[in-house]
Design brief:
Blueprint lengths: L2 E6 L3 H12 L4 E7 L2 H11 L3 E5 L7 H9 L6 E6 L4 H10 L3 E4 L4 H13 L6 H12 L15 H11 L4 H8 L3 H14 L5 H10 L11
Parallel strand pairs: 1-2, 1-3, 3-4, 4-5
Helix pairs in contact: 2-3, 4-6, 6-10, 7-9, 7-10, 8-9
Length: about 220
């Protein structure tokens, strides 16, 4: 199955470079491009890609605003934010908006390809060490709020959520819980469904903001 991708960046040379990297990899195809946030929303809604590579800073509409619009659409794509600056504020804002991760534009080509594969597969976090650190740091600034829907989780599902908050992959969770990877995949899907979350990144944000895990405390 080919992963269909839209590239959104206000610099034509950057878009060309991203296209070159993506299309050199079997099983990936750039189906559309956009030069600003408004165009990114329009192109993605028309072409329905699996993934959008979204520059965080663009004219007319910035990447975060464009991402929020797309993620509010039916059957939204997964979004990887691209930026020149690795700032915790931008990363946290992107994750809270529901994007799947964050990648520096200066990252090597192989890292971009791997990021696309990770996000498309959905069984791991993009850069789990950075993701969990930033979420823990920002979520810890506020008192946790425990949503009522958290009570819908079974004890095992709550355990899986805590492991997700540590940034573990499905295979790593399976090892921790002494179960099969397929079983973990089922638990993860149920956790996301019951909590109305799009993906693992949102699950980590939820786990910290609801107090399921606490910053500075081992999540497992």
């Amino acid at each position: 199955m080919t992963i269909r991708i839209v590239v959104a960046d206000d610099q034509a040379m950057v878009r060309a470079g991203l296209r070159l990297v993506v299309e050199s990899e079997p099983g990936m195809e750039v189906v559309g491009e956009a030069g600003d946030g408004l165009e990114a929303v329009s192109v993605a809604r028309r072409l329905l890609p699996e993934i959008v590579l979204m520059d965080i800073s663009m004219p007319r509409m910035d990447g975060l605003s464009a991402a929020r619009r797309l993620l509010d659409s039916p059957n939204p794509p997964k979004i990887i934010m691209l930026t020149t600056f690795d700032t915790d504020e931008n990363l946290y804002a992107a994750l809270r908006a529901g994007t799947s991760g964050f990648l520096l534009k200066v990252s090597p080509p192989e890292q971009l390809v791997e990021a696309i594969k990770v996000v498309a597969a959905g069984d791991a976090l993009l850069d789990p060490a950075i993701t969990t650190r930033v979420i823990a740091s920002f979520a810890g600034r506020h008192e946790p709020v425990r949503p009522p829907r958290l009570a819908e989780l079974t004890p095992r599902e709550l355990e899986v959520l805590r492991h997700l908050a540590r940034g573990l992959t499905n295979a790593e969770i399976a090892t921790e819980l002494f179960v099969g990877e397929a079983t973990v995949k089922t638990h993860v899907a149920r956790v996301l469904m019951k909590l109305h979350l799009r993906d693992r990144a949102q699950a980590v944000v939820f786990a910290y903001e609801s107090g399921v895990v606490r910053p500075g405390v081992e999540a497992g």
